[in-house]
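Per-residue structure
===
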Amino acid sequence: MLKHLSINDFVIMQHIDLDLMPGFTVVTGETGAGKSIVINALTLALGERGDISQIRMGCDRAEINALFDISRLPNMINWLRDNDLDGDPDTCLFRRIIESSGRSRSYINGHAATLQQLRLAGNFLIDIHSQHAHQSLLQKDTQRELLDAFSGCADLARAVKAAYQSWQDWQQQRKAMEQRAEESRNKRDQLEWQIQELSALNLTAEEWHTLQADHSRLSHVATLMAAAEMAIEALSDSESAVLKQVDTIYTQLNHLVDYDRQLETITALLDSARIQLQEGVRDLKHYRQDLDLDPQALQEIEQRLSAIHLMARKYRTSAEELPPRLANLMHQLEALDSAADIGHLQAQEITAKTEYLALAGQLSQARQQGSEALSNQVSDTMQMLAMSGGKFAVALIPLEQATSSGLEQIEFQVAANQGLPLRPLAKVASGGELSRISLAIQVICSKLGTAPTLIFDEVDVGIGGKVAEIVGHLLKKLAKQRQVLCITHLPQVAATGDQQWQVIKSAELAETPSISSTIKALDQQERIEEIARMLGGVNITDVTRQHAAEMLHHAHHAAGNNP
């Protein structure tokens, strides 16, 4: 769960430190005070994209820190360890900095992290339900994704999508091959004669290096022999040969060792030099004997090199690239042979289609079971939300053609009152009804997730009175299993919270006037004042305060009677 949130110089918030508790926390305040900024800051820390417009005016950077307790999230602990992002035991610290230069920095447990890593980690921790969810609820894709999530078949839906794509890929390859049959034959002929020509050359990388070395040696054999003769003469055969001089020096100094032991080291070095010089002369003589003036061998090598260079020019490449070119051409021919086998492509297409239909059938079955359960649960919740007699249903409409989403279209249907026929949600639900249905679905679906923290951002828009009180109790009941944070304008919802924060916006009068927001955790008396404000507006009377106190008392009493 979320334990601490620190916000610095973000939008209109200068510095805020929030310690969060388990249970149900409500956030209230005047319209425009900055309640949703708290959520925006948290989502930024969890990987949402940001920009310099989010930095508080006149500041160099914005910084958000969010600390979570992950002691009951073994999957996340393993994920952090696998990605070298682990930190203190049982906690995870997210840090996000946006600088006025436009640079953004992100950290998990003090380790630099990408936005993608922040988002992946955030998926373990928080589910956010926004006030705009009821608008997206009218979209077919949203309805399908909600049903799949509720039915526990989101992974199966992704597998169906992948299988459909595989089927379509094989189908497209088969159709393209049928259309390009003549082009493929021409390409095959070209590849075959090129492969035959390069194979006849029979050049390998090893031969190319050997040819270059042999050609260099045979081209300069006279120079090499002369150099060897000169070296032998200078080292051992001339009157002033180096070896003879070293021998003379060694002999003279060796006779003097008895007079000065310091000469022992020098004579030892000279003796080693004599031995190495002797070995060098011996190797030079062998080298000279092995050198052979062979004009015919040189001519053969030059002819071979000429043929290789001619082939390289023909293929507009270097000689050493000819062997890889041959391997590449053979690979192309092999791929072309495989692709040219239309029968093979047809078999692959049939196999892919069969796999898709099998997975899609499983998905349809899972959706059918899930649709019945979701329909019943939403219908039951609608009765609690002042839609007595209303009915909700998830219809699975078979499609004439298979799609990447499966074999059916998902359609949410509703009958707002008893006796009315079910019709598509987009056509019959009013704004208030849509808000209540959306809230019912969000509360039901939120129970399915694994994230320990749920955030509801003004999802109670469009409701009030008794329905608002029921919504508050629904969220409070949900908070017995998960940490719930709710931004609300409704006093009935606020009264059911275990904790309440108030967002206050104030104007600072100075040479450059500015606006800032702060957040305050309210005690019991302050909660009465805030709920009275939400009830009565500007003019708060004792009667309003008494009503607020009664709401808090009633909410607490109801919670105690409904464990």
